Amino acid sequence: MKKKPLYLMLALASLLVISCTKDTVIEEEGENLYETIAIPDEEFEKALIELGIDTDGLVNHKMTKSKAEAVEELSIYNKSIYSLVGIEAFINLKELNIHNTILATIDLSKNLKLESVGLAENNLSSIKGLENALNLEEISLSNNVLKELTLNSSSLKKIFLKNNLLNTVTLNIPGLRILSLTDNNLSSFDASTLVNLKELDLVRNKLEAIDVSNNLILKFLSISENSIANLTLGKNDSLVYISSFSNNLSSLDLSNLISLDHFYLRGNPNLTCIKAGVNQVFTTQSLSSYQELKVDCN
Predict the structure, then answer these.
(1) Does the pTM of the predicted model rise above 0.85?
(2) Contact predicate 206/185, CB 8 Å
(3) Domain map of the chain by residue range?
(4) Which residues, 6 or more positions from 19, have their beta carbon under 8 angstroms from its beta carbon?
């Protein structure tokens, strides 16, 4: 048996190395081009397929990462989605709307470019990462099951939290303009740091007192159907509308509210006299038969 020349063996070895190296490079380039992310929830993936975002058309618990990164707006309604795992890859997302699902938790800490978040009518008990979105201006979390919420933001302008189970809300958002907290379980609320607030809605909670004397540009105040005995208004030149019916007020001074035009105060059984200024004229005033406006209630 003849031995193969040494130079031939070396040449074959070199070809094998080159071939393997080339295959590795191609494989790595392919991985970069077609890198995938996990989408464990089949209903979420089906919705992405319907929207033309997951383009392989297969429910295989994954999608191409580059397709996720190209999305700036995502809206999904009326699906049995329980998990949004995979949303972290949508790093260029600016607007997110997920409504009427069975979603219980969500982490948006990687979605840094968000400007608007709509997550109403789900089953959310917790949400993470909103403070990371430095351009976020509006969030709607109404009709969920949140019990507590803390938000810190320098950009938020509008927050809608109607119909949750909130016992505690802590907001460090000096630029906030509109806040709706109707139908929750709040027994107290501190509005003193929300100095740019223009609309405040706290209807149907468990409040016994509210102080808006520091909210000097507040225009609309809705606090009806609580147990409020103490309402501190201060001197507000902007307040146009007050709805405080079905509470426990025993006194109220409207004389400093020079812009007030509409108020609803019926159903406060201990409030028989409401103080008003001599020249104040109101377009709408809703009072019970035992209530009257007077310049002097002493």
Answers:
(1) yes
(2) yes
(3) 35-145, 146-298
(4) none
Contact present, 67 and 55 (Cβ < 8 Å): yes
Contact assessment for residue 228 and residue 248, using Cβ atoms and an 8 Å cutoff: yes
**Which class would CATH give 35-145?**
alpha beta
Token pair 């890198």 in the structure block, residue: 35
> Tens digit of pLDDT for each residue in 227-279?
999 999 988 899 999 999 999 999 999 999 999 999 999 999 999 999 999 99
- Rounded to the nearest 10°, the torsion over CA 68, 72, 76, 81 is 40
**What tokens appear for 78 in the block?**
């009326």
| Alpha carbons 154 and 209: distance in angstroms, whole number | 27
3-state secondary structure the chain: CCCCCHHHHHHHHHHHHHHHHHHHHHHHHHHHHCCEEECCCHHHHHHHHHCCCCCCCCCCCEEEHHHHHCCCEEEEECCCCCCCCCHHHCCCCCEEEEECCCCCEEECCCCCCCCEEECCCCCCCEEECHHHCCCCCEEECCCCCCCEEEEECCCCCEEECCCCCCCEEEEECCCCCEEECCCCCCCCCCCCCCCCCCEEECCCCCCCEEECCCCCCCCEEECCCCCCCEEECCCCCCCCEEECCCCCCCCEECCCCCCCCEEECCCCCCCCEEECCCCCCCCEEECCCCCEEECCCC
CA distance 242 to 261: 9
Residue in 136, 72, 139, 129 with CA at minimum distance from that of residue 105: 129
The tokens describing 23, both together, are: 């295959």
Q: Which fold has domain 146-298?
A: 3.80.10
Dihedral of the alpha carbons of 29, 30, 31, 32, in degrees to the nearest 10:
50
Q: pLDDT of 186-222, one tens digit each?
A: 999 999 999 999 999 999 999 999 999 999 999 999 9
